[in-house]
Queue: 2 jobs
Job 1
Amino acid sequence: MGKLYTFLKYFFITIWTVFVVAPFLWALTTSFKDFNSVNGGVTYIPWVDFEPNLEGWRVLIKSPAQGGVDIVEPYFNSLFVTCTASLISIILGTLSAYALSRYTFKAGPIKNNDITFFFISQRIMPPIVLSIPFFLFLGAVNLLDSLIGLIVVYIVLLMPIAVWIMVDFFNKVPREIDETALIDGCNPYQAFFKVVLPNSIPGLIVAGMFCIIFGWIDFFFAFILTFTEVQLLPVKIVALNSSITPWWSLSASALVSVAPLIVVAFIVERYLSKGNLSGAIK
Amino acid sequence: MNLVGENLSYKLTEELQLRKISFNFEKGKLYTILGRTLSGKTTLLKTIAGLLMPDSGTIKFEGKNFLEIPVWERNIAMVYQQFINYPHLNVFENIAFPLKQRGLDPQKINDEVFNSLKLVGLEGYEKRKIQELSGGQQQRVSVARSLVKNAKILLLDEPLVNLDYKLREQLREEFKNIFINGFACAVYSEYDINNNKFLGGNVNTCGLGFVLGADPTSVPPVGKTNGAQYTMIEDYVFDLVDKQGLYVRTGNFNISQNNTYLNVGRDGGSSVVVEPVIEFYRTADSNGIGDAGHIDMDNNKHAHIKSM
């Protein structure tokens, strides 16, 4: 029984791992191939099956005039928009989450949980529903096709994630810690910044990482709200896909665009399971 | 100066509320609040601390209206049942936190912290993380953090309830020394009467009080306050007569009416009797069964046992 279980466990884990990793491996090998290797049948192992070269990667940083695809500018656009929007979302989201967790709000039948749900409900709607109002709004304030406009939209999209995660996290931080801080001479702001926030760093990191992931992979709004001036990475890569860009540089650009998320995934994985509050309350 | 509360009412839920609580705590004495779950012990402590704003009533301390002073300026120390510490700080930083908050100079903070570490028997642990300490040690850290503040009002919310027997005895001794040396006005709320023995029996300055629970059929036992003895008598039921006094609904009890400040609710609400020197004794009932023998009233209208 035990052996069979172990066998099945590793069997399915192996299958799943192959399933997940294979596309990456495919993209990785393809990115080092040239025309002949790609079209000459299925090959996997560099130097044995095919002769690797860096042409696919070189093309990424060359300007279109030199026959490249110039992924650098969209890359930094994406980094800038994602990081700025995530940072602002985390700051605003954490403050709202703390308020929602600790104070009682009431407006008729609307209470704290309803407000929290209101934040999350932004993510329940299909993006296409939001796209038209966003488009009209950005058009009205003259922010279409600009980085600032994208940041504004992304804050609307990312803040619910931050609020959602942080409300849950603050609810798990015992209220008595805040009260003790008040009794020890902190005003409510000091209690938040000196006591509650330092104990919420794992939550902040998780929320931040989720914001970065969702901001980074968004294609829809980046596609709809930009035209020529500003281009984000997902849009750029899709554009490459539909052009005459060769497979090897397409693979390389895909890998480059996934790279930050792999880093983020490792950080999230480390903090997701880590509780830092065991000493607060016994 | 006294800590005076008048007609404090606070409604948290239907079951849990304070109903017109009045008290007069004198400096240098230790007051005990007893009561069952949901009788409002912690609610009363939090109201005194300022964490809860009473719906009506006043609290005065040193002649000032306490309700107008925010929690963080009240100079109160409170020890929670769940031993709250700051998990992101080590033992030293935990105890130093309230002093740093006051902006004392580092040398003084250092001295004070080490003094209080010594007091609770945690010398050598100052660099430890809170999570590395045992439950009892964590509780001692939170006690030390309360003591280091030299607060004028010390509130203890069942600080011994989570500890094992041996540690409880040990901490009880430490508490006793602290209370004798200090001038704190302390409220100690714990249902387990055994934990309060020293408060009733061994500390001269202490007093006794009661919280009657939502279910008034079980009132904590009662003891003598000014001698070495503590008498536990069970199954008391009190009932409300008027604002001035109490009478005993079942059994035969006498209490000194002049010293009750309090309302005792019978309608399911939590109520409090807090009184420094009042003593309740059960006199012999019609069958001649009684714990306390004769009851005499002294000049101050305090009831005393003549013979046990």
Note: The helical segments of chain B are 41-49, 91-102, 106-119, 135-148, 165-181, 197-201.
Job 2
Amino acid sequence: MRIEAIKLSKNYGSRVFALKDVDFKIDLKGMFAIIGKNGAGKTTLIRILSTQLLPTYGEAYIDGIDVIKDAHKVREIIAAVPQEARAIPWLTPIQTVLSYLMWRGLSYREAREKGIEALRTLGLDNVENEKNRKLSGGQKRKVLVATVLASEAPLIFLDEPTTGLDYLSRKELWSLLSKMKRDRLIILTTHYLEEAEILGDLIGILDRGKLLDLGDINSLRSKMEFPYSMKIYDPNFTLDFSGIVKRVNDGVQVFTNEKNVYQIVSMLLEKKIKFSVQEVSLSNIFEFLVEGGEQNEEVLEPGNSINTG
Amino acid sequence: MKRYWNQVIASILVNSIYAMVNYPVVLINTLLAPLSILAVVTFASHGTLLPVAALGALIMNMVQSGTSMQGDLSHLKNDMKLQDMVVSSPTSAGTYILGMAISELVYSIPTIILLLILNFIFVKITVIGWITILFDMLLIFTFSISLGFFLSTLSSDIVQSWAFSGIISPLLTTIPPVYYPITYIPYPWRYLSYLSPTTYAAEIAQNAAGYVHLGTLDFALTWIILVAFTVFIFVIALKKSRWREI
């Protein structure tokens, strides 16, 4: 599925930019995760692409179809669950899915069959005739996911589908989304960076309406000056190298490049100091891009001859 | 065409059938408002205004469909985000609204049946009179549904939506001469009542039943004004309502 945005912008009045000159072109099957802080423009972008909102200016295309001018054609191939969408409390899960599928044009019989199948896939078949209001938060969210899953739309938009769920419910939904993304494109917004890292085949980082970066986790890492994170369990450790050091509870956290990692590791092994080393996480990349790596007041300036003691 | 009707039926299922099946108590809700005013007017007039009030209750029921739809749409749009889900689907605004409008009629089927029985018993109307009333009801229904849709797209939360309903209902049904003949309103207040389209709808119905007499010119003028009100609000609803937000 190809998606293209050209100078996509949305402003409210002359001063408030929800989205500013967003450009990207993707051709993907899987999960495109859009991350950003609250107010970064994630929902605005997803609402424009899913034809719910008109941009102030710019263009967008889904599989070559103009999102702005040919919205009715786009709507044939997309399905969306908006942020804060709720399963209607007076309906049952099967009634929820069935009616949504009928809005997509399916007959009652077809909709019912597909609805039952989708609810079974999401493990909701035992509660399909309960009223939605009696379901748990995770189950209610799954009912909404079931509606778009059953639609068999090749492009699905999920705006913060796991917000407010406990960790286990989120993990359960991640596993379902991992299965769902195999044969379609899912565009998901989230502020859980772990979620984007686990699910996202492509990750877009938005900040204050601008797209800061776009790529898979490895390509995002490769653009980092210091793509490795080391934890050294000795608060008084001192060394000379190029990188960034943060004080943490039981030692120091070091961000550095591959060459320095080898040197530091051999030095630590020699001095028998405990340490761990890993590639930087999406959370680290996000901090550097959005917060400029200065979120933590304990951060020391990057450069040579850093005394961690 | 079949696909279109599936989409219409989806709105009817969600907004009336499933609500009635899952919570039968909602059926009483639609009965109460038209019947309570009918009862008050009937008792206060010692029964003399029962036929006029029975016709008025039909008009109120049609207007109530619009105000109810306004509340329902607003709730589904703002609290459930259902409208956004439907916007991102092949269903068009017109199809969604047609389904929702029919759903309001389905909701009030018990009320309509009861009111028709009352009218058949107490109001002596010719076949042509009934046909006139049918068109009259369709017009005022279209008016109220268009107004309801327009206001629902403007309201950003349910509290605002309740405020709209609270304003529309008395202005269109309780204050204007819907449950009683317009001759009961003294001048200059009578002129004010002509600001409401329901006054014209009531005059047409009362004329068809023989409770007021409209001359040919008045009769034509009343229809023209009612049609104009309806077309005006229908066009406004089409042009100004926000399906896809800007």
Note: The longest helix of chain B spans residues 50-78.
